[in-house]
Amino acid sequence: MIIWETKEEKETVRRNGWLIQAAIAACILTSAAYLLVAATPAVADNTYWGANYFPNVPLVTQDGKTLHFYDDMLKGRIVLINFIYTECGDSCPLETAKLTQVYRLLDNRMGKDIFFYSISVDPQRDTPAVLKTYAKKFHAGPGWYFLTGKREDIDLVRKKIGMAGRLDEDPLTGHTTSLTLGNEPQGQWMQDSSFDDPRFIATMIDNWLTPGYKSAANNYQNVPKLDPSTAGAGPSMFRTRCAACHSIGGGDGVGPDLLGVTNARGREWVTRYILAPDKALAQNDPIAVALFNKYNKVKMPNLHLPQADVKLLIDYLDSQTAAQADASVADKPGAARVESDSTKTSQGPARN
Hints:
By secondary structure, this protein is of the alpha/beta class. It has helices at 7-39, 69-74, 92-105, 128-137, 151-160, 198-208, 233-242, 261-265, 267-275, 277-282, 286-294, 307-331, 333-351; strands at residues 58-61, 66-68, 78-84, 114-120, 144-148, 178-183, 188-193.
């Protein structure tokens, strides 16, 4: 038993005791850290993003074939990975339609060294048969797989490629709309928005992720520059939100040709439909139901555009319809003859 003669001596011993304990604790932590580092095997940089990182969980394609995520889907390949679900009424149809455009740009390499993987975040509903029907709606070809599997396996894949959902998110409505692009042999990985320009996405895959490979057809430097006459909010919205599924005078795509749409449907109906196509379909609007059935039951996505933006978009559609109508009239033989006659008439007085 220690007896302190004074209060000061007692306090000194107490402080020294704390210092000694802190020093011992520091030594123990340092030793533990050393042992942890020593016990961790060194990993070469060029193999980190390989079999020792990516899970090899099984996923099932739209054709019912089981593929293992690393061995069968990533190893030795250039890949594009995104997450969708077939009942999605917002981003998924537009996202898939955009990837259809990217697929066409990369067609000569698809299924050879480049592969697309669209993985469902609704595996309970999205069976291989459901995914097969969905893939056909968007004309998916060889090298593009739509996959399902166990939710825990899909969640693990999302986590490992940096696309995990938040803890508080709805696994369906809250899924990310990003794309993961990768070249597994080279260890190159990047992410991009699924709503980016399809030509730009194709260029990233075709050139940037393929060292030494330069495709004349897809080289981004060969892509024509944007025509200044198409600049503005309306044209921009059409290119980014509509062009993946629609044209203006170019014929039907995933959805109908929008040339003259307000003349055929009325501006008021077109406005209501663009603002809330999901609501129109749920309320059995006859035009919405007819369009849904005619175009392979692909749901028009709710773009969540404010009314002011919808007005700008419709104004652009109307202006393009008017411009093409004027061009069509000018191309008619009668119009050309009248123009020629008027030119002669205007030139007559000048000759006199």
